[in-house]
Give the backbone structure.
Amino acid sequence: MLSLKDFEKKAIVFIFSGEDKIRFANENLVVDDAKENKIKHQIPCIKVFAVYVIGNITLTSVILEKASEYGFSIIFLKMNFRPVAFMGAVTEGNTILRTKQYKSSLNPLLSRQIVQLKIQNQLMNLKNIREKNQKIKNAIQRLIEIINDLYGVNGEENAVLLGMEGNASKIYFSAYFEDIGWNSRKPRAKIDPINTLMDIGYTFLFNFVEAQLKLYGFDLYYGFYHRTFYQRKSLVCDMVEPFRFIVDKTIRNGFHLHEFDLDDFESRNKQYYIQIQKNKKYTKKFFETLLANKIEIFNFIREYYRFIMQNKPMTDFPVIRWE
């Protein structure tokens, strides 16, 4: 199993169609500049955790063989960052884990715990805003009240939890993004630049979490809060929830620090897209976000694995520690 010490040294690589070429040389993954025909990056295969391929690119069977041999994932995305395919390093045949996973998923308190973690981190984002107007102060108070109300909810009342989570997110988004033109959250609708960036950031986060869950051999399709549904990776959806706030923070900071610009977007058929020539800037920023938080994500998933395997009580459900 991958240790924290090993994971800290792992790299995430991005390959852009038309700009990069990928090859292997002496057990290294080499990224060449497609135009200038010179090496941009050279990383030992053993240090690669995941490779994101953005756009159309040709990969040889050797590359796929090396990915399997060294246990790193390859994630394929369209130029608009829509996921196409995922080839991941997988721990196969961990039947003990899966048996315990299926049994533990019946515990209704797991759902309540994951919702609580999500709202607590949304609350932290609001509290970290230096200059708080009355709307932000009111939102902080409301989220605190919702967190307190969660303790009175039986985890079996999934519809109640969904309602409380939805209400908390509505309050949080409205206050957190108020000064950069917030409308509402519409997944995959791309109704404005913020929603478009959320879709992109959450996709990167989803793929990153999925790659780590695969290392242990979890059944990705069997969740506890997100109900099992055909072809939906419900467990990944569950594990992503507490970390969505880091994408939100990246978006808000990006606009406040003038790293993100509304002029980088174009509208087609009432949907907003990043201009292709601007894609790399946003990819780089979300990439930095994953790197900055990869240890916390790794620790949470590792502790969840131990929680399941050792039949730990709910008091030992993993927490997320932020500096």
